[in-house]
Amino acid sequence: MKKLFGLVLLAVGLTACSGEEDPPPYTPPAQPATCTSAENGNTRCVNTSLQTCNGSTWGSTANCTTTQQVCVETSQTTAACQTPLSTTCTAGETGNQRCNGTTVQTCNGTDWTTSDTCVSPEVCTTVSTTVAECAAADVCSGTGTGEHYVCNGAVVQVCEDNAYAGDLYDCADLMGDGSVPAAVCYDYGGTWEADCLAAIGNPCFFLTQQGGAFVWGCGSGTPSLTAGCDVAEGCVTGQTQCTPAQEFVPVCGGGNRLVVDCADLSSVKVPLLINCASEENGFGTCTGNICRHSTTGGPCHPALMACDGGLTCSSTTEWGTCET
Prior knowledge:
Helix content: under 10%
Shape: elongated
């Protein structure tokens, strides 16, 4: 995730969410009917149906029951029709474990019984001929040194020196309760590598419990070079790429929006915006690289929002109101 500080944290109309320092519990999302170009060729199981993503939608490839098989998800991105494993075992196999799809099964001397069910992003992994366990899919191997991020399905995972170090958050369900519209995980390359990618109109800016903030890129399948992140309204179009700076100076963007910061996501530079023309901001305009309005009682700030029409701001150092 790209952390942001400074003027962007002063912007009005923000919705607070718990952030990356304290990620919410992971809850598997419902399987959607649509998919993305990044998922093209991926396979999955829906009951007995084996489905494949064509870059936009999931379509049925086979009904496994027609060949007396079952549909088994073999990884986070692959599935296959497989002949069911035997349900019985022998006394000599007592205590042995095996993988059966996403479940760990243990032999009790006569039958194979489920001892654990692996929940995404974990998969059932065969450790040895007699031991199996739920473990994170090995998406970190060969990805680089130091702390970095990789995609495992929709989940952003943390890697430390090629080893799995935990989950950052689930792009498909950030809060674990469906309150944030689903995004996808995208590999931006460069310093930050993987992070979430939000669709136009969906939230892209979030506050953390520690008082910081982070932002996602905007686009469909791939980041858009003409989109920006409005801190109150989410991903919007009609913008241009910005230039990151340690001390960012606000500048007018497209559509009467003020660019208050610039998020460097390696392959894209996302402008962070406030809408000068919104009701909350006095139905103003972006003029001279600052929001301006003449609404009595409307907000004002020395660096972000000025009062017009003979009004003056009640504060010269922080947020105030436009007064006569």
